[in-house]
Amino acid sequence: MKIGSKLNKIGWGVVSLSLVFVLWYAASQLASMNKLLPNPFDVLKYIGVHFVVPIGKKNIWGHLYWSMTRVMTGYVLASIVGITLGFVVGWFKVGEAIVKPFYLVLRSIPSIAWIPLAILWFGIGEQSKVFIVFIATMLIIMTNVIDGVKDVNPEYLGVARMLGTKEKQIFFHIVLPSTVPQIFNGLQVALGAAWATVLAAEMVRSSEGVGWIILMGQTSMNMTQVFAGIIIIGLVGLTLALLMRALEAKLCSWNIRGE
């Protein structure tokens, strides 16, 4: 992307966020809204103060640590299993016959529906939250890997086989490189889903985490705390997306999406 175009894109993003901030401030000044919509400056001040002062037993850094630990544990496990099963289903006919029926059933189940089962199976500890993140993100990654394998140009495969190339070499030198962009697409989408899912799990049962901040704010009718949690969620989600795009740009500079 050219520097001018990139700066123009950033500029419009700043304008958009500034407009939202102004509208938020204006709405918070209305008498009918001031109990439901806190002043944005109060929310930002609340966030700044509670990076040091605890909310409950931990400050914001502590809550972020617990949320990110749960996210990354489930996400890494889901990445390993999802990529592996994606290639099993996408490349091997026997694997597709065995695994795909279960995959199709699981894919139709919303991730939030696993929360009661996770609590019954693993209790209310960390294992249940990690499991919910795992099951929600693994299927996303697996779907993208399967699609990537199926989208490999069949002419490349035909020519390779005609020249006597072994299936193992075809997989590692044609299929795997061709699937990398789709894998990164799945990893990026799954990371956002993991962040959203763990927050939902924390709101059901937890004693720390960003989701817990929102839940406690709701319980005590502290709208400033609720909006502070929402802002933190948005900023962390944006940061994760930018980091994943930067990693993709570094490793897949030959095929960058959305340019």
In words, what does this structure look like?
The structure is a single chain. By secondary structure, the protein is mostly helical. It folds into two domains: 1-37; 39-251, MetI-like fold (Orthogonal Bundle). The chain has helices spanning 3-28, 40-49, 60-91, 93-107, 114-122, 126-150, 154-162, 167-204, 210-219, 223-251. Helix 7 (154-162) runs antiparallel to helix 8 (167-204) and helix 9 packs antiparallel against helix 10. The chain is globular. The model has no long low-confidence stretch (mean pLDDT 86).
Structure described in brief:
The protein is mainly alpha-helical. It has ten helices and no strands.
Q: What is the number of E strands? A: 0
CATH class of the largest domain: Mainly Alpha
Provide the β-strand percentage band. Answer: under 5%
Number of helical regions: 10
Overall CATH architecture of the largest domain: Orthogonal Bundle
Structural class: mainly alpha
Rounded to the nearest angstrom, the distance between the terminal CA atoms is: 6 Å
Helix fraction? over 70%
Number of structural units classed as domains: 2
Q: What is the molecular shape?
A: globular
From the 3D structure, determine the CATH topology of the largest domain.
MetI-like fold
